[in-house]
Every structure is written in C-alpha cells, then in structure tokens.
Amino acid sequence: MGFFIHVTVSCGLMAMLSLGLMLIVRSGVYSVASAGFYLVGAYCTALGTLKLGLSPGFALVLGAVLGAILGIFCIAPAYRVREDRLLILTLGFAESLRLVCANSRSVTNGAMGLSGIPHFSLLGVNIKPGTIAFAGFVWLIVGIICLLLIRLVKSPWGLRIDAARDDRVAATSLGIQVARPLYIVHAAGASLAAVAGSLYAHHMAFVSPAPFTVVLSVFALCALLLGGRGSVKGVILGAILIGAGLPLLQLVGTPEYSASAIRQIVFGVALAVLTIWLPGGIGGIWRGAKSDRWE
Amino acid sequence: MEVFLKSLPAQIANGIIVGAIYGLIGLSMLLISNVMKLVDLLRGDLAITGAYLCFWLSALCGFPFAVSITLAVPLTGVLGLVVERSVYRPLARRSHYAPLVAALGLSIAIQGALQLLFGPEMIGFEQTPPLLPKVAEWGLIRLSRLDVILVLSFVLLTSLLHYFLTRTRLGLGLLAVADDEEASYSCGIARNKVYSFSFFVASSIAGIVGILYGLQYGLEPGAGFGLTIRAFIIASLAGSRGVLGAAIAGLALGVVESVCTGLLGANYRDSYTFLVLLVLLWIWPEGLFGRIQKRYARI
Amino acid sequence: MIGGSSRIVSNLVQVRVSRICKHFGGVVALDNASFELFAPGIFGFVGENGSGKTTLFDIVCGLVRPDSGSVLVNKHDITTWSATRRGKFGLGFGRSFQHPRLFASMTALENVLVGYPFSKGTSWDEAILGRVKYGEQLSSARDVARQQLDLLGLGDNERSYPAEMSFGQRKRLEIARVLLEQPRFVWLDEPFSGVEQGLVTRLAELLTHFSESASSGVCIIDHRMEVVRDISTRLFQLHNGKIVELAQS
Hints:
The complex is a heterotrimer of chains A (295), B (299) and C (249).
Chain A: H1 2-26, H2 34-51, H3 56-75, H4 83-103, H5 105-108, E1 114-115, E2 120-122, E3 125-127, H6 132-153, H7 156-166, H8 168-173, H9 179-204, E4 206-207, H10 214-227, H11 232-251, H12 256-277, H13 281-286
Antiparallel strand pairs in A: 1-4, 2-3
Helix pairs in contact in A: 1-6, 1-9, 1-10, 1-11, 2-3, 2-4, 2-9, 3-9, 10-11, 10-12, 11-12
Chain B: H1 2-36, H2 43-60, H3 65-92, H4 98-118, E1 134-138, E2 141-144, H5 145-167, H6 169-179, H7 181-186, H8 191-217, H9 223-238, H10 242-264, H11 269-283
Antiparallel strand pairs in B: 1-2
Chain C: E1 13-24, E2 27-39, E3 41-46, H1 53-61, E4 68-73, E5 76-77, H2 83-87, E6 93-96, H3 108-114, H4 124-129, H5 131-151, H6 167-180, E7 185-189, H7 197-213, E8 217-221, H8 225-231, E9 234-239, E10 242-246
Parallel strand pairs in C: 3-8, 3-9, 6-7, 7-8
Antiparallel strand pairs in C: 1-2, 1-4, 4-5, 9-10
Helix pairs in contact in C: 3-5, 3-6, 5-6
C-alpha cells in the first residue's frame, strides 16, 4: 500500500513538472531547468519549516514566488541569446542552483541534506505523507493546474503565444508582444515546479541536492514529449509512464543503481527516438497529427 | 593568503595541464559547430565512451595499451559518425532545438549504459608504462610523465589541426563549408562528405581527450557532462578565431578554474565553470558564429 | 471585411520619412531617402531588384534600425519605437513580406485569426478567468476570419496548413491576415508576385476597396511598373538609394 502511494505521488509530482514545462515549451524554449526550480521549492520548504519556523503552507507559497522570480531571471537573457543556446542556458542555470545548495554547507548542510521536515498542513489540517490524503492532495493540485492550462492555451493569449513561437518577426509585425508572455510563461512554469518541489520535500521528509540533476529535467522533458507537447492528457500519461518507471523497475529486483541506469537508458533513447520519428508524441498519434503540426 | 601565493605557480601549472584537455575538447566542439552550425551536446560523452572503450580493450580484453589506444580512437570517430548520420543529419534541417533535445536524451542514455556496463564508481586505468612518476620539479610544481605527455599532445594536435585546415585541400574544403555553405556547394564541395569527415576527425580527437582525461583523473560515467559544458564554453570563446582561439581559451579556462579552486576550495570547481558559462551567455550572446549577422534588429 | 465603423479614429494620418540612410557593410541601401504620405490612398514603390525597397519598409516598420534619419507619424517621432509598438492593434502598421511569413503550426483559419483584434482574453489573467468573456468573441472572430478567407479566394483552404499551400495562396493568406486588423498603414512587399493571373485584378480591387473603407494607406512594393501604376494614387521610385516621386498620368 505504501508502495502504491509512493508511486502515485511520484507520478503526480512528475506530472506537475511536466505541465509547467508544457507552457514553457509552448513558447518555444526547450528548457531543462525544471530540476533547478524543483530544488528551489524543496529547499524553500525545508529551510523555511526547519530553520525559520514557517508553516508548511506559507513555505510552499514562498517557494512558488521564489521559483517565479528565478524563472524570470533564468529566461531574461533569452532575448539576446540565439535559440540554440537557450537549452544550455537553462541547463547552466539549473546546475548552478544545485551547486549553490550543495556547497553552502552552513546554510543547507551541503550534500548531507536536511531531514526531519514536518508534515504538510493546510489550514490546520495535517496531511501526513504516505497517506491516501497526501496522494489525493497532490493529484488535486495536478487537476487544478490542468484546468488552468487548458483555459490558457485555448484563449487568444494562447494563440498569440503560438504565433510568437512560430515566427517572431511576423508576430511583432502584427503587434503581438513576444517578451512579456515569455516571462509570464516561464514564471508560471518555474512556480509549478517549485510547488512540486515543496510537496516532494514533505513527501520524503528529507532533501539533498543529489536527485535534482539535469537527468531529472530531461525526464520531465521526455514525459512532455512522450505524451505530446500540446495535449494535456498526453502529458499526464507521459508523466505516469516515467514517474512509475523507477519504482516499478526497482520492484523487478535489480539493485538500486542498475534500476536508475536502466531508466536512464530507456527514456534517454526514447527521447531521441521521439524527436526523430514522433515529435508529436502519443498525443500526436491520438489526434492524427500531420507533420509540422505542433502537437 | 601567503599559502595561496606560494602555491600559485603550482596552481597555474595544474591549470595549464587541465587547460590542455579543455582546449582539445573545445577544438573538437569547434570543428562541429563551425562546420555544421550545430551545438553537439554529446562531445564529452563521446570522449568518455572512447576512454571506457580503451579501458575495456586494455584492462578487460588484455590488449597492450598502445594497441588499445590505436583501436579506441578511430572507433570513437566511427561512433561519432554513426551519431551524425542517424541523429544529427535528419534533425538539423528540421529545427534548431531538435538535435539538441535528441542529443540530451542520448547523453543520459549513454551515461546510463556506461554505468550499467562498468559500474558507477570511478575507475583508473592500469598504466603501462607507468606514467605517474615525476619527471620534473620546481618548488611546489610537480610534473609527472603524464602531464608532459598531455601538454605535448595538446601542442601537437593543435598544430596538426591548424596545418591540416589551412594547408591541405580537404581542410580548406572544411573551412569553406564552415564559411559559406551554399557557395561551397556550388564550388563542387560535397557537403555531406565534409560533414562526415569533420565529425570523424572531431570525434577521434574527442576519443584522445577522453583517454588522456581518464589517465589523469580517472573515469566515471558522468564525467562526460562536465567536459561537454567546458567544450561549449571554449568553442564559444574561440568563435571565429578558430584553432588558436580554442587553444588559448582552453588554457585560460583551465588556469582560471585552477586558481579559483586553490583560492576557494575544490568543492566549488564546477560552480566556477557554470558561472563562466552563465556570464558568457549573458554578456556575449552573439554566439559561436560571430560573423553571422542578424538581419532584423532586436524585436 | 469588417466595416469601417469599427475604427474609432478616422482622421487623416500622415507618415513622413526623412533622410533615412542605411548601409550594410560596404553596400549603401538607402541614401537620404525621404517621402511623405497621407492616408487613405494606394501608394506604389517601384525600383529594380536590390534598390532598397524592402529595406525601406523594414525600417519604417521597425524591423531594421536606420543609420540616420527619422520616421514620423502625425508629427510624432516613432524612429525609436520597437516593431511591436508600431504594429499595435488599432493604431499601427501592418506588414506583409516578400517571402510570406506564416505560422506553420496553424491552419489557414487560425493564421488569420491571429490578426483579429481581440479585446478580451489577451492577457493571461483574462485568459484563465474569462472563458465566458472571450468565448463568444472567439466564435464571431472565426466567422469574420472565414469571410476574410473567402474574400481572398481561400475559402476552401480553411483547414489547410501553410506547408500544403502554393506560394500564391500563401501570399494571399498573409494579406488576409494583415488586413483583418485594419491597420492605419499597410506595407505590402510584392503582394502580386506569385499570385495566379486571374486573381491579380481581384486582389487589386480588394486593396482599393480596403483603402477606402478602412481609411487606410496601402503601400505596395513591386518591381513591375504596370501592375502598380494602375491602382496607385501616387508612385515612388527607388534608385541608387534615393526616392523620387513619379508623375501620375
């Protein structure tokens, strides 16, 4: 039972990461900074509750705000940077965040991490990790995010973001702003990742910089592309596949590090294969996508 | 502070040695990026794979070390060629991010595979002939035979590459494609052949780099990532100044890293690199191909 | 086409371009080029290939910065304005390009829809909260977009993607998109090139009608004199980087 809940929460958190990434990718940036904002949320919660005595709810909100600010900061030079360097920019940014946490031993306890994070509580109600209530709460948030996202992409605002992504010059000649939506989208995506990070901290009751590597970001990107960039249902499916991948592999009985290595191989190759042959992902297949169509 | 100043020459010497490695991998990246207009995120992983290949041949298959190197380097080149044909060629045309995303996926897959095959711990090469004994010593600077070989290889490879690019027919063809693809096409230069060839050469160089790196610092599956980042930095700094620029940039990066490590502690080593990377991207956005002008002003 | 009554401001608009200089490397594209226009009307810009016509339009629309000179609209200096600001809905410049710039991931209908001047749902908060608000607007916008496509002979291509369309169709689609928001001044770069022979006259009529009904200044680049001469109220020629107005007979 505990294992099932762990898998469910795992998938839910990955879904949050991927949904945040969905907006960012929609604006044209293939960002691998998700793990960095995930880390920000997690450490914000950890430090906030342990060292500053904040309530978990407040720490979560603080993490979201901090994530948004850092998200804007991350993408700010994007304007001047050529497109093919954006990926490396996001990569560098996320790794820098991780290294800051890993090296500030006095503040964050470095690589040893912080443990003993209290249970998550909202309005006085304690939601203990490892319970169905917690898993339900995680997926409730996922559901809310889905609703908001669907509204965003089907609106005129979403149409303009698509236009700006497809052809920046044509969009500006129509009077569409390219910069501001980019910031908003990145702030939102980073915020969502930070919220996921906060919940992760409560779920594990322990944070260390180790899991927040580029590999995690690549998994989020893979979940997004696997499920289909434009399809919310697809993204959820992709997140479930990847989120459940590691725990299930561990079940099969291979030792710890082999399981993660196998997961890396499988999803790394999947990402490459998807990019070459199936850019629309599973969602693209559902919709009968034509080539060039941004699914 | 005094301790730092006393050890400064040693730090600089270390910096030059590690800078030699960086310069070479930067050269490898530069070849690809200038000719194919593509940032190759697999440089470091290819290098490390070549090193693991050499390790496998020498330590696990029992071939003599010299033979292993001679086999591993061109094999790495071939591996690069395979990647170019199957991944980059179909994708580079399509969009600017597709090859990067695919490379990223392959990068983590390769790291996973290496971890599966060779284990996650750092392994050292068995060194035949022994390369560690020191050959020279000035004050706190200690140079081993390996260090000397490293620097010599760096100088040799850099000069060879420079000579090749500027004096031979094939090399000039490469430069032509790098400069203006369409014009060179109309001159009869077979573009695909140039792509394949430059990938082969660049990947072979990467293989050499990986082996040298492995000899000096030991191998672990995740080491490729750091090399790729540094290769990118150096290729960006070198820009249109080509081989010489990459060489100088590599040495500079190595020295800066080394001195900062000496000053602030070895834990932060990677942090400096990323700091340099971010600063580079922030203040110098023109990129690897400074000569390409954007038609439209900042919109 | 949307009726001219949706325009709030209908007074005369003046565009004055003075002494624009632009060079690329050693090549002088524009050398103290100047002209003055009043909307409405149709204005032709002719000249040989490479005479700087596209560069001129680029500068006026804000995509390229001139080396010196100024662009004034109703006596306001907009030389430092960004391209987005100049294209802003309701007061701006519209532009079409020599090689049509279309949004590859959208259908023809959606391409045109991007040009619709939505009044609600254009910021993220409205987008999330106001499904009801922009929902109706979206369906009427779609109808208007459909009419626009019909007008340019693309009624059957509603669901096609730009990649599936011919060059002439793409050109017309781009024009459909830019005319939808009824900009004050429209800068069309070779709108007739590639357009199927029978449709040239229809397009010319359309542009004439548009400039009257929307009180808009339509500026057309073409290197073929005959096409442009017939419909233009004023004609300018670019030569050696300078602009000369030609007498209209």
